[in-house]
Structures are given as C-alpha cells and as structure tokens.
Here is the input.
Amino acid sequence: MKRQPSIDIVRGIVMIIMALDHVRDLMHVDSIIQSPTDLATTSPLLFFTRFVTHLCAPTFVFLAGTSVYLSLQNKNDLAETRKFLLKRGIWLLILEFTIVNFGLFFDIGFHSVLFEVIAAIGFGFIVLSLLLKIRSQILGFIGLFILFFHNILPIIPFEENSVLKNILAPFFSPIVIPFSGRAFIMGYPPIPWLGIMLVGFATGKFFALAEEKRKNLFIKIGLSALALFVIIRFINIYGDPVLWTTQKDAVFTFLSFMNITKYPPSLLFCLVTLGIMFLLLAFAERFSNGIKKVALVYGKVPLFYFVVHFYVIHILTLLMLFAQGFTFSQFEFASGTFGRPKGAESGLSIWIIYIIWIFVVAILYKPCQWFGKYKAENQHWWLKYV
Here is the structure.
C-alpha cells in the first residue's frame, strides 16, 4: 500500500496549529496564572485559540496508529514491524523524558518530568507491538470500547487509597507523583490515548479504498461523530466529566457547551476532534496546491518539527523576558513556569501571540524541508526513529 499524501497533509496542518498552543502556553500574558478554558476569566478569542489546538494531539496519535497499519501492509513482515515498534516506543519514551522535557522547561534539574503526547505514542507503540497478531477489526473495537467507556472509571466508587485504584489511576487519569523533591506528572494518561491509536490502526485498511469511495466514507464517519457529539453533549449526562451550564449570555453558554476535557481525552473530546480530522482526511487531497505543499513539508517530518519547535519557542520566550526588563537571575526554570518569574507580570497579548506563531512556523519551513529531503535521500538506520 503506497504512502498516503492525505495523512501527511492533515498531519502537517495539525502540526502547524499545534505551535499556536505552545506559543500561547509559554508566552501569553495570562498563561501561567489562568486557564484559557476557565469561563470565569477567559474571552471567546482566548477560548477558541485553545479549543482549535485540541485537534492536534488526537490527530497525531490516531495517524500514528494508521501509519503503523500501512507500514505493516507495505513490509508484510510482522516480526520486523513488531521489533521496530518496540524499539521506537522505547526511544519515544526516552526522548520525552529528556530532550522534549528539557525543551519545554529548560530546567537542567528536571524538577518536573512530564508524560505527554510523545510518551503516550511511545507507550501505544509498545502495546501495539504485542497485539499485531490480533485482527485489526478487533483492535478497532477494543479502541472504541476504551473511548466510549473509560470515563466510567472515575465514577466507580473505589475505596479511598485502595490498591486497585492506586494502580489504575495513572493509566486513566492525570496524576502528580512526587519523588526526590521532583514531580512526575502524568499529563497524558496512556490508556485513553491507546484507544485512539488502536482506532487509528484499524482505520488504516480504509486507505486501500478508491479515493472517491474513501472520501465519502470519511465524510460519513466525520459527520456521524460530530452529530453524536452534539446529541450526547446536549443530553448532558455522560461523555465528559464537566457538564455544560447556562452562562451569562448565549456566547458563553456555547463556550460551556464546547468546553470539553482533554486530560484525559473524554468521549466527547474524541468525537469532536476525530470527527473534524475525518473531514480533513476526506478533503485533504482536494485542498489548494499551496496548502498541500506547505502542509506536506511539516507533515513528513512531524517528530523533527515537534522537537525543534519547542526549543525555538522557548528561546523566543527568554528573549521576550530580556526585552521586558528581566535579568537571567530572575528566571525561574524549576518552578514549571518556563523561566518566567512568578509574581511578576510578563508575557504578550493574544494578537502578538498569533504573530509569533506565524513567525515560528515560517522559520521552521526551510529546516523541515531540508530534513525531509535528507530523510528521503538517505537510508541511515537512525532516520527511521526521527
């Protein structure tokens, strides 16, 4: 099965959007003191600046699973694919806890160790490597079962501090585990994200369909997911731990309706983000040539872009602090504020965040283009892991 341009196009689009979230996280004036989804303090623009980036992680994880399926079909070698997935999974875990974590915090002491999307994909690859003999349809049903029912776990009345609850909690819910004056933060509980990856793996078979038939199928799946999101959200009983409520006006009531939970990814979060993703996949190859050309540059080297963009944004954050009159001695790296001093006003307004986002994406275009070409023209073993 040949490489699918639509996958790289959609992956490239979400990688571009992803940078907006990280620029906002590190550089927005209010990012270290308030949540953009807190309806008591947010604005519609800030809320949707965050909301649109919800699309990124589930698409990234889903398409990682799809790519595994396509790679297995191309190689037709289960043992080799299993071996590669196991190695790549371990490598991604190491990468998350070293290079990615340092790029995020610039904290040489690693006082906060985050388990986020790269580690979640690594965990998923390791588990998937053990399940490759199982039919893709069955793995898909397992994935759907996880997505639809993992929200039940938090409402099960376990005894307080029960052994079972303590074992299961880090796999299903965000948790902070202190150790040696540091903190391990399970930001991306791996089981719900594994569910997304398994559904992505099972969906890989649809890429063998003719383009028009695949397009129509993805439109149906995408619209069905979005319709199911609206129905379940309107009923307001299950699907997300945060129920929507009537707010001070219609706009904020709509924000409450759309205020879904990413940590862990709730059923409603998955329905709306993956529904949009399926629609993007359906129309990706019909986008304008300019959009496809740009998106493919980033979509072909997602891990390279992911790692480098963190360092670029963080360097810009430090330059911002210098420009705002802070000295290096005032920077706080161990506190989880990305170097920004606590208790002192720093950061930029939302419209400048958008300008910097465009700047970051633009300056990474040529490096990603170069690396994509280098990767295509060389067969070094390590290129398979980047």
Summary: Residues 5-281+303-385 form one domain. Strands lie at 112-115, 175-179, 182-186.
